[in-house]
Specification:
Blueprint lengths: L4 E2 L1 H8 L5 H8 L3 E3 H13 L4 H9 L4 E3 L3 H14 L6 H13 L3 E3 L8 H4 L3 E3 L2
Parallel strand pairs: 1-4, 2-3, 4-5
Helix pairs in contact: 1-2, 1-3, 3-4, 5-6
Amino acid sequence: MTSVILDSSAILAVLQDEPGQEAVLPVLEGALVSTVNLAEVATCIARLGVPKDVVHTTVAKIPIQSCDFGYDLVYLTGTLIQETKQFGLSLGDRACIALGMMRKIPVLTADRIWKELEHSLDIEVQLIR
């Protein structure tokens, strides 16, 4: 069973050899990731000027389980704007948090502001740095 959900910041820490990757590497294989967050990862890699085929190969090689952005996840992600507006969360942030809420498993992120949401949203946030 999947033990954690990864935010794009956690995956990028591994791909870019950043601080915090040591917290992600032991749980990377089989971790759950929203397809919205995978799109963020692909976008960040492409912004570096990496060719499309290399972006595709890089993302495809990440040993995670992707979770399609289905209707229930769409609805919860969209409605989280009401509870999180003051924190300035992106669509990707809310998609990751919503997935954690639905699956009731912790989310790993580098975004410290998420810790302020733990109790109000009934989600466990684990910071990677």
